[in-house]
Structure formats: structure tokens, C-alpha cells
Amino acid sequence: MTEIDNKRGTVLAKLFLIQIPVALILVTGLLAVFLVIHVWWPVFVSGGLVLAGLLITVILHLQHVTIRISEDKIHVLYYPVRILSNSYKRIEIPKDLFAGGGLRSSLFGLRRELILLEWAAGGEKASYPPVSLLLFSKSDRLEISKLFNV
Predict the structure, then answer these.
(1) Which of 140, 132, 148 is nearest to 100 (CA)?
(2) What tens digit of pLDDT does each residue of 45-104 get?
(3) Every domain of the chain and the residues it spans
(4) How far apart are CA 46 and CA 114, in angstroms?
(5) Angle ∠(126,128,130) on CA atoms, nearest 5
(6) C-alpha dihedral, 86 to 58 to 136 to 89, nearest 10°
(7) Handedness of CA 10, 129, 148, 93 (dihedral sign)
(8) Strands 63-69 and 73-80, how do they pair?
(9) Overall average pLDDT of the 13-27 stretch
(10) 99: CB partners within 8 A, 6+ apart
């Protein structure tokens, strides 16, 4: 069984885009409410950082992804990297119905996505929703493209 995930990239993205800005707004907000600091600009700046982190995760479509390839199935587990989201979505394709995959790049190469195809009834190809490859390392992205022959 082959397994590839982007756990390291996801942890770093969550830390810098979500956890640190949220902690900053909580700390500065409490300090301002209890009049330890007498200005509100740190609260507004940290609020702006929270909004910027949210926009970045939404626009770049950041996801935690685990790809498992066993002898008979291809499993792709993913969930969006956002505040308060932990529900996985799953793609399961039996290897005999796997019709290939493709890589797609958008936003001037900032978004990189894997699209998986499955043979459907009538000989048609059905595509699954795109899965973000942005938080994978370059070597993992190369390995993924070799695994799916794209």
C-alpha cells in the first residue's frame, strides 16, 4: 500500500494562517477590553490578519489530503483547511474502474489540483471534485503525478 499525505504543509498553513492570527485577536481584544492597552489598532490589525488568513485558505482552496493506493482501490481523503472544519470527504475508486487523472493549475499557477476520473455506465468518464495539491512538497507532487500517470 502506498500512502502520501501533506500533513507537514497543513500544520504550517493552519499555524500561520489560522491559529496565530486567532490567538492575536483574542489576546489583543482582551487587553483592549480590560484597558491594559488604551488603543484599539492592535485588535483591528489582528482582525485583518484573521480575515486575510481566511481569504487565503478559501481562494487557494487549501486542503489536508491523504492519498492511499491499495491493491484494489484508490482512496483520497481530504478536508478544507479552515477554522472549525474537520469533516473528511472521501473519494474511493476501484482500480478496475479508474479512468486516469489530470493535474490542473489556475490563478497563475498558485492553485494546483488533481482531478480523478472513473469509468461510469455507458463508457463515459465521470470526474470527481478537484483535490488541492498546493500543500504537498515538490517531491510528493512528482510522486503523485507518477502514480496517476499525469
Answers:
(1) 148
(2) 999 999 999 999 989 999 999 999 999 999 999 998 988 777 888 999 998 898 888 888
(3) 1-150
(4) 34
(5) 140
(6) 40
(7) positive
(8) antiparallel
(9) 94
(10) 117, 118, 119, 125
Nearest 10 degrees: CA dihedral of 61, 77, 96, 121? Answer: -60
Please report where in the chains the cell 474537520 appears, as a residue: 86
Is the Cβ–Cβ distance between 147 and 7 less than 8 Å? no
β-strands 73-80, 89-94: how paired? antiparallel
The CA-based angle 150-92-9, given to 5 degrees, is 65
- Alpha-carbon distance of 77 to 138, in angstroms, equals 20
125 DSSP β-pair partners? 119
pTM over 0.90: no
At residue 142, what is the residue type? L
Q: Which of 99, 133, 102 is nearest to 115 (CA)?
A: 102
In 3-state terms, what secondary structure has residue 65?
strand
